[in-house]
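Action item from last week, closing it out:
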Amino acid sequence: MKSFILLTAISISMFSCSQQTKSNNNMKSEINSSNIVEKVNEQVKQYTKEPIYQVYVKNSLCTYDLLVNDYPIGKISDYAQQATPYDINTAILKSGKQKITLRLYPAPAEYSRSGDTFSPNTSCKLEIEYVNKKDPNYNAVAVNEFKLPTKIRMAGEHNDMEIPEFEGAGKKYYEITYEFDATVPYENEGWSKGQDLTKLDQKLLEKKTVEFYNYYKNIYSSNKADELAKNEYGSMKRDAISQYQDKKEISKIWDEYLFNLKTVKKWYSLEKYKKVFYGNGKIIKLEQANDESLYRGESALYYDSVENGDTYGNSLGLYLYLPEGKKLEDGLEVVR
């Protein structure tokens, strides 16, 4: 009897996954460049209160990567401060506990006496707040504030003066994760139902990831707008739902996709890259192997474009995952 019940449960689960995959594939096949704005707009709901969570990062003597729920949100790779906040709703899939991570790197040597390690005076503060998109005044509401941990060094003639110093002083890298609560009216699937890619065949995973990157390179090289729409629908839908976008906003974003699609590109070779996992192992991205801070975290799918006589470096931030019930042999998908 136990075996029968277990097999029945597995059969139901497999049937459910199969039906869901079939439904997603059917939706994808219906999407094209002409209807993607309408299709995305159909999925967006409007609420009386529409909180947009934001993070201010105030850094000194360090650069950083910022992740929410292990999903990249922003970075400073040259020594500067972000004057405007990062909107983080796209990484908040549903209400509840959220994790925010700082990956810190020492400021360039010319700004610090500590060389390639952290100065004792290094600091980085996170200020989390939200604004109600329906509020005409866009008033910010404080949620939480985090500072880097410090240790005390005794100084002074009598060694009785307490001087706080950064806990990571002398190190070349420092990472810390905090938690905060968020309340949002929506719920996105995102990568939550993705498989743990770190547990799969890594050679096959790399092969399939490179194949998908080359497939996307072909989309952008051949101006395949319909193909791009089919792949970006899920990601655009997640962004639109989490940011409560109206049709005009969605249309503007798709126009930007089309503009980037049509620009003349000079591609860099997709050879030197490194595999990086995000989303607690459920997301994979190929990033540039170049160790220079300017290229840190940049996609390996990189090209130069020329606009009005000026050359600009661009990268396609392609985050891939494997939905539950799908075989790696059948290929990866863009994170929804």
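Closing note: The chain has five helices and 17 strands.
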